[in-house]
Structures are given as structure tokens and as C-alpha cells.
Write a structure and sequence with these properties.
6-stranded parallel sheet, 17 strands, globular, binds zinc ion
């Protein structure tokens, strides 16, 4: 089968590999019907993910059809349409029982697919801990609607959940990339009084304005003043930092009112400074981290009910055999690209 493979720093190649087989009684084999490219894949390509294992098939955003399951798998069966979770988790350890599945202590726990073990930019993928890692797609929900459930939408949903948003709040979302827009949609589900999106690129600000009437947009230069003018207590009540730019962490806490919650979802290229003397007395609450991606059943339900729609993020579609072109477009942000969908290799 075709599998897009991390061969070394800067070197991804479409290789012909054997189809994966069950290795553990909790595994499932999934035929990939749609996948996508994530910024984290680019981080692997650029060599900035040290735990990524050369030789693995990349890709951790996909949906598909279950082909085969191990003897201990009970939640899904062959023929089921499923979303695949970016995180592998056992469901039984201390962290899993608390819902902190990102820190699952299983050897494959956390982000393994498409990083430490073979992922889904391929025709088939082996999913460990399949009872936890797969969720059935409700009837009437298409692959394109479900594509982001296991990764960026899981992240947005989790970020909005932990941010303790109230109906009187002004919420600032920094970054209107794919994860930023998923986060925005999940923030809107909580009906805060005002939502402001800060984004550097004009095209993306316009997209937000078009898709979500009522949401205000602003560039980073004007953000501090703008947020102050549009909130009741000198700054945003809740800030979600989803941009990960060189100065967006500073912007996040500077735009927050005293005693605000600042949720940092972004992944930075380097360490960030927490200037405690400057922020002394502001009494902020910081929440940080990687998604605890155990909310897919809820987000699928919200998609089925028409409450979440991430399909406008899919701006381009390529078949697997042309994935190289898709990467090139995504990496260089050409042609207004937000997300690329990868369809199975075309029939010859
Ligand atoms: Zn990702
Ligand atoms: Zn666990």
C-alpha cells in the first residue's frame, strides 16, 4: 500500500509498504477513507519533534472504515465508519481514569500515531487501544464533516471546556488557523457575551468575519486597545492562545483582565518568558497543555446536530498519490489554504 513516510529530516516520501496487521488483541485495522495534513506533520518534517521515529508513516488526522479487530476490541466492529483519535490511551491507568488521557502511561500513550508508530497518510492504519482510539461516526455525518474530530476539533473542544467560560464573558481567541477556528466554534457553543479573534493575516480575519457574524476580529498590533474597549473590566475575561507566534504568549496575558483565565493551547518553537514582576498583582490563572482527546463522541454528536461544522476549513483536496503537492501547498500556505483533505489513491 502507499504510505507517506518520514525518512529523515526534511525527507518525506511516498513509499510502497506492506499492509499493517493486528499485533495486539486491542488493535484494530482501519482502511483510511479521508486524511489530512497537520502543522505537527510539518514539525516532524523539519526535525523539531525529537521523538518522531524515522521510517514511520506520518499522519494523525483521519477517518475510515474498520477492517479487522483484535479479540479484546468491543466498541467497534468491521464495517463501522470511525474517527481515529490522535492520542492513544488505555482507559485504565490513573491519568486515563481522571480524563487526562494525554498523559496515559501505556507505552503507546499520548501522541503515537504518525509520530512513534505508523500513522494514517496511507491506505490502512493499525490503531492500538482501539476501544478508546476509535469512535463510530453517526449516520448522516460525512467523512469531511468528521475529519477533524480526532485532533484539531478535539483540541478546540477541550480548550473551550477547561477555560470556564461564562455567559457574561468577553473571550479572546488568539490565532485563526485551523485549530483556532475549531476552538472558536467550541467557544461559541458556550454563548459568551462577546468573542474577539486576534489574527495577523487579513484573509483569515475576513474568513472569520464571514463565517461567524457577531465575532469581532482584530490584528495583533491593535489587539490590546481593542480588547480593552470591548470588555467590561479592562481586558478579556478569558483568553485562549492558539497561535504560537513569537509574541503571542505575551499578548495573551497582556490582553487578559485581572483574575482572568489564560488557556495556552499553542505549541511554541522555543521557551516563553513568564514576566512575573510585570504581571504581579494581576492574579492570572494559566492553563496549559496538549489536548486530553477523550471528547470525540460529544463532538460527533454536536456535528450530527448541526452545532459544529468544520467543513469550511477544507479548502483543498488531493488523492494520496499526489500528497507531495498537497504538502507543498500546505507548507507554503499558497492559494488561501487552511486544510487539505487527502482522498484514497485513485483507482487505476
Ligand atoms: Zn495534529
Ligand atoms: Zn491510560
Amino acid at each position: 500500500m502507499y504510505a507517506y513516510t518520514y525518512c529523515g529530516k526534511g525527507d518525506f516520501r511516498l513509499l510502497d509498504k506492506p499492509r499493517p496487521v493486528l499485533r495486539d488483541s486491542r488493535d484494530a485495522i482501519v482502511r483510511v477513507t479521508l486524511s489530512s495534513i497537520c502543522t505537527s506533520d510539518l514539525h516532524i518534517k523539519h526535525g523539531s519533534v525529537p521523538r518522531a521515529v524515522p521510517g514511520i508513516t506520518v499522519g494523525h488526522e483521519m477517518v475510515g472504515i474498520v477492517e479487522e479487530v483484535g479479540s479484546q476490541v468491543t466498541a467497534v466492529a468491521p464495517g463501522d465508519r470511525v474517527t481515529v483519535n490522535v492520542e492513544t490511551f488505555c482507559g485504565e491507568c490513573f491519568f486515563c481514569r481522571k480524563g487526562w488521557v494525554n498523559n496515559c502511561t501505556d507505552p503507546n500513550g499520548g501522541w503515537a500515531l504518525g509520530c512513534r508508530i505508523d500513522g494514517g497518510q496511507a491506505e490502512y492504519v493499525r490503531v492500538p487501544c482501539a476501544d478508546q482510539g476509535l469512535d463510530r461516526i453517526p449516520q448522516g455525518v460525512t467523512d469531511r464533516q468528521a475529519l477533524f474530530v480526532g485532533d484539531i476539533l478535539a483540541t478546540g473542544y477541550w480548550a473551550a471546556q477547561i477555560s470556564e467560560i461564562g455567559e457574561e464573558d468577553t473571550v479572546l481567541v488568539i490565532g485563526a488557523g485551523p485549530t483556532g477556528i475549531c476552538t472558536l466554534q467550541c467557544v461559541l457553543l458556550q454563548h459568551p457575551r462577546q468573542v474577539i479573534v486576534c489574527e495577523r493575516e487579513r484573509q483569515r480575519r475576513e474568513l472569520v468575519g464571514r463565517l461567524y457574524p457577531g465575532v469581532l476580529t482584530v490584528g495583533p498590533e491593535e489587539a490590546r486597545e481593542f480588547v480593552r474597549d470591548h470588555s467590561s473590566h479592562g481586558g478579556a475575561d478569558v483568553v485562549l492562545e492558539v497561535a504560537g507566534g513569537p509574541s503571542t504568549f505575551q499578548l495573551a496575558w497582556q490582553c487578559a483582565r485581572p483574575n482572568a483565565i489564560v488557556t495556552v493551547v499553542a505549541l511554541y518553537d522555543g521557551p516563553q518568558t513568564l514576566p512575573l514582576p510585570e504581571m504581579y498583582g494581576k492574579n492570572l490563572v494559566f492553563k496549559t497543555g496538549g489536548v486530553d482527546g477523550c471528547n470525540c463522541a460529544q463532538t460527533l454528536e454536536l456535528i450530527a446536530r448541526g452545532k459544529i461544522d468544520t467543513t469550511p476549513l477544507i479548502t483543498h483536496t488531493y488523492p494520496l498519490e499526489r500528497i507531495e503537492e498537497a504538502y507543498d501547498l500546505f507548507e507554503h500556505r499558497r492559494d488561501g489554504v487552511i486544510k487539505v483533505a487527502i482522498t484514497p489513491r485513485s483507482e487505476k
